[in-house]
Amino acid sequence: MGPVLALVSFVLLLFQLLLVARAVLDWSVALAGPSVPGTFRSRATHGVHAATEPVLGPVRRVLPPLRLGGVGIDLSFIVVFLAVVIIRSFI
User: Model-level pTM?
Assistant: First the structure.
């Protein structure tokens, strides 16, 4: 079972890195403005969202964003990220 668990841990690590990339790219929109279509940032954002949304979407439907005034905190991102960290710690 060792190689299988190592592979699962590696895939979860890659997904964890994609989640971090998604957070950075989402913040880049807030700091630098929307990306121009066709640029590297635009393509990277689209790719990362396409890879992570199948996991985050269902969690977001169950756990909507927390509204604090004009700010929304995406709890689904936090829950999925912590779940990946916990699963990797058990493997």
Answer: 0.88
Spell out the residues 6+ positions from residue 19 whose beta carbon is closer than 8 angstroms to its own. Answer: 52, 77, 80, 81, 84
The Cα 87–Cα 82 span in angstroms is: 9
Q: Is the pLDDT of residue 1 over 70?
A: no
Instruction: Compute the average pLDDT of residues 34-55.
Output: 92
Q: What is the DSSP letter of 38?
A: T
Residue 80 in contact with residue 55, Cβ under 8 Å? yes
Domain of 7?
2-90
Joined together, the tokens standing for residue 76 give 């689904």
DSSP, res 65:
P
Total structural domains within the chain: 1
